[in-house]
Write a structure and sequence with these properties.
Elements (H helix, E strand, L loop, with lengths): L2 E8 H11 L5 E8 L5 H8 L5 E4 L2 H9 L7 E3 L5 H12 L6 E6 L2 H11 L5 E6 L6 H10 L5 E3 L2 H7 L5 E3 L4 H22 L2 E8 L5 H7 L3 E4 L4 E7 H7 L7 H7 L5 E8 L2 H18 L2 E7 L3 E6 L11 H8 L3 H13 L5 E2 H8 L3 H13 L3 E7 L8 E6 L2
Helix pairs in contact: 2-3, 6-7, 15-16
Organism: Nonomuraea antimicrobica
InterPro entries: WH-like_DNA-bd_sf, WH_DNA-bd_sf
Protein name: HTH domain-containing protein
Amino acid sequence: MGIVIGVVGPHDLVDDVAAVCEEQPGVSTLRLDYDHESQAPAIVEAHAAAVEGWLFTGIVPYMLSRDAEALTRPAAFVDYFGATLLNALVRLQHQGQEITRLSIDTLSAADVNATFAEAGLPTGEVRTLPYRPEMTSKRAIAFHRKGPAHPVITCLSSVHEALRDELHVLRLVPSVHSVRAALRQLMLTAEGQVQEDAQIALGLIEVANEEGLLREATALGGTLAAFRGGTHLLVTTRGPLHDATGGFTGLPMLARLAAENDVVRVGFGLGRSAAEAESLARRALARARRLGEVSAVLSLRVDTDIVLESAPIVPAGDKNLSVIARRVGLSVPTLEKLMEARAAAGNEPLTTREIADRLAVQQRTARRMLHRLELAGLAERTGNLTSGSSGRPLTLYRLTL
């Protein structure tokens, strides 16, 4: 069975990196290039379902995607020190440049010093700008311009484009050795994840009204059958369940079923065999019964139980903010601000940026809030809105709390 790797990077690097990956038997690639590294998170989110793992051509697009919480699959990036940096030094020397007087971005000082020491070169006049979460291409450009007019080594295509007419700039191109090393690391992680995702997930569901159950099972990529004693059996695998529960943090289907039923109890078990999964699902359902009339529990091996949802679902007309706050892990004042934002928008969908501005928080924080509300059935995604720049599209949410 093959594995599909999504290769993400600038136009002129993706094909070469993908070609090295495809030398590995059983590996195929999805080649995804961008004009600017800030587009990487949106690319990852748009194609997540088509790959088993991500390989980024450098650390910057990887970190941008990770910090945006867009990575739902195993991911790795190609390191640019060692062989890649040594190759760049040789190229600069062939071009007649002084390779002991350089300005280098993204790489850490320790990695640069280790590579130079391996080549027997001094580093006294080598300036480095290590990657940090707050580093942008504008800051890297300013760093190179601020110092002496030494040759520049950059990992960013945007920096290369901005400086190539005023300084001698060399953009790092990942060596074959570096790509193969990153791919080996990714393959080990991705293959382990694929095996883990194939674990059997078996759910036992107690609900009087069966309407909607088949739709929920289909959404989980599973099958539905009658069990016994009025209990329904839902069979799927770990991967779809992990995605649908936001990493086992909540169960949106519970709120939807509770809208039509006074009692909804769900027990999921994850096992390496059907017998083990059923045993764990029974344990989970027994605990869900003890928790209340509307509750869901996931039982894992080694006696681990995760409460996916246990707070009562309050009818729409009588919702109590303190109950909702406990359910979604947000404060009452925050929920009140969200309701004010919804009212001010005339109940129209709001972008994550609009929510962030109204609550005076970062967009990353706003996305986390909205994700929690979405898992609880109190917000729904209605599409994306292009921001008008090269940045990631803004997600539109309709608030229903």
